[in-house]
Amino acid sequence: MKRYSFPSRRSAVMSARGMVASSQPLATLAGVNILQQGGNAVDAAIATAAALNVVEPMMTGLGGDVFALVYLHQKRELRALNASGRAPYAASLETMRRLGYQRMPETGIHTVTVPGALDGWCTLLRACGTMSLSQVLEPAITLAEQGFPVSELTALRWEEGRARLEANAAAARTYLPAGRAPAPGEVFRQPDLASTFKKLAQGGRDVFYQGEIAQAIAGCSQENGGLITMQDLNDHASTWVSPISTSYRGYDIYQCPPNSQGLITLLALNILEGYDLKSLGHNSPEYLHLLIEALKLAFADAEHYVADPDFVDIPLEKLLSKAYAEQRRSLIDRNKALPKVAGAGDREGDTVYLAVVDKDGNSASFINSLYQGFGSGVVVAGTGVCLQNRGALFSLEPGHPNCIAPHKRPYHTIIPAMVFKDGALFLTFGVMGGFMQPQGQVQVLLNIIDFGMDVQTALDAPRFRYFLERNSCAFEPGFAPEVLQALADKGHRIIRLDDPYSQKFGGGQAIMVHPASGALIAGSDPRKDGCALGLW
After folding, report:
1. What is the spatial distance between Cα 289 and Cα 268, in angstroms, rounded to a whole number?
2. H-helix or E-strand containing 66?
């Protein structure tokens, strides 16, 4: 086995009868419990997502959005669901200007788009699941009612979100009941969220989009000067979309299409396929330079083309062609960094990613997100529902592809991924973390494909992150000083970050299917509190 010059902190997890990987052990157990009851990958994914709403509430929840890829093994069918919400009908450039904004705010009621998560869960269950909503919500209800011990990194993120929570009375009552964030190991209960889950288990999606919870969300919006109305909630629906893909060294990589930024991963891989990366050496200056430059160019394209396809024409066939990749590759100087090529995307993102493969070979690659920590910072009183701030990614620049408009979906950072080899599922994976997501995906994928790392080692490996607005690149611990100096000599602006658990570098989960035996091999990112667990 090849050794790399960084510590891989634990072994990969292996199983033959199903696997769940998520950022919280209790949520992973919820998914495993559903698989043990006979549920499939989709059932387990939704149970895991609901449990994450309880145990990692700053990252995800009913007030957020979902993107998912689902592979149905018996049918050899890959499906993609866009369960992201839209701007209110009353939202427009003129409205935002009238409210006094020159650019979109980062938090608050005017960043709230319609929550798409629950409709996504119900749509997935209806089309691909085997269990009822009440069955898959049962673990989350138990966790919310009985309480859970807050994990270490979650406690840290909770404290980081305290100021945002204190700005909203309902948020403070819900998440800071003692006037502070919970400490690691402290048992925290969410009775309001448990009550909401019970209502959904009994009444289904209509409770959330037409009934009691919808009325509470619309009322909360009105009380806080927001724009969401009952009509916005009544009219919400998820959308089945065609996955987009590219080939990379014989592997087929699949993503959700725009308004998701999964296109960035594919564009960067197409550019990088033209180089013999393995010969350069893992995390060498030459290797890192090419990755950074490819990602710069991919983000530049995303700024023009990642938007709601109902409002913007997106030439996906051209963008994903190898000929276009060759054109973009020609812009890269192997000895000199490109100047700033895009001007958005430095905001932090807080998200959960989870992966499931069941005993029958079905798989779910699943992201549920509020965008930033505790989203908008607005909680719907009495429900435990924290509303997302996805609207922060709209633009207020006239003519911009992501300029806010009524019933428009914003640019979305969440990107679940799957990889196939010779038509068979090879890898279900993702890396949470806002604009880090495609950067993390590319780095993890190259670790596996080009350098032959197992999934845990690939996730453990040190990462960099390119910051678009600052045209600078941050590196976590693990990169040699001479490597960073060589990159600086090429013109890269280098930021050294000492925190090995910084949110800036994302957190991934991955499940690989062994090509020969079919065994499941999983890894869970050490930058999060989570784990992967298999069935015996």
Report:
1. 13
2. strand 65-72
Residues with catalytic annotation?
A: 351
Look at the block and give the residue holding tokens 């009851």. 37
Angle at 32 between CA 240 and CA 453, to 5 degrees: 80
Nearest to 503 by CA among 441, 439, 456, 433: 433
User: Looking at the DSSP assignment, which residues form a beta bridge with residue 82?
Assistant: 67, 239
- Other C-beta atoms closer than 10 Å to the C-beta of 13 total 20
How far is the C-alpha of 230 from the C-alpha of 234, rounded, in Å?
A: 6
Task: Identify any residues that bridge with 336 across adjacent strands, giving them in sequence order.
Answer: 333
Backbone angles phi, psi at 473, to 5 degrees: -130, 125
Q: Which domains does the chain have, with CATH numbers?
A: 253-347+415-421+430-534 (1.10.246.130)
What pLDDT does residue 536 have? Answer: 80
Q: Looking at residue 281, what is its pLDDT?
A: 97
Contact 338, 296 (CB under 8 A): yes
- Bridge-based pairing of strands 494-496 and 472-475 is parallel
Residue 140 · residue 148 · CB < 8 Å: no
Q: Which residue from 55, 38, 6, 79 is spatially nearest to 368, judged by alpha carbons?
A: 55
Q: Which helix (H) or strand (E) holds 366?
A: strand 363-371
Tell me the Ramachandran region of residue 87: left when phi exceeds 0, alpha when psi lies from -120 to 50, beta otherwise: beta
If you ran DSSP here, which 8-state letter would residue 508 be given? E
CA-to-CA dists, residue 181 to 148, 157, 167, 306, angstroms:
14, 9, 14, 36
∠ CA 338-339-345, nearest 5°, is 105
Per residue in 335-345, is it b (16+ CB within 10 Å) or e — as a string? eebbeebbebb
Q: What is the pLDDT of residue 75?
A: 97
Q: What pLDDT is stored for residue 195 in this prediction?
A: 99
Look at phi and psi of residue 42 and say left if phi exceeds 0, alpha if psi is from -120 to 50, else beta. Answer: alpha
3-state helix, strand, coil in the chain (%, to 5): 40, 20, 40
Radius of gyration of the chain (CA): 22
DSSP output for 186-200: -EE--HHHHHHHHHH
**Spatial CA neighbour of 58 closest among 304, 408, 351, 345:** 351
| Residue ranges in the chain whose pLDDT is less than 70 | 1-9, 342-350, 500-501
Instruction: Determine which helix (DSSP H) or strand (DSSP E) holds 155, and give its type and residue range.
Output: helix 152-160
Residue 66 CA: distances (Å) to CA of 237, 266, 367, 445, 471: 12, 20, 6, 22, 30
Query: Which segments of 230-287 are extended strands (E)?
Result: 239-241, 244-248, 251-255
Can you state the angle between helices 191-203 and 133-146, rounded to 10 degrees?
170
Query: For residues 387 and 171, what is the distance between their CA atoms, to the nearest angstrom?
Result: 10
- DSSP lists the bridge partners of residue 509 as 430, 524
H helix runs in 56-104, sequence order? 93-98
User: How many Cα atoms sit within 13 Å of 264 on the Cβ side?
Assistant: 35
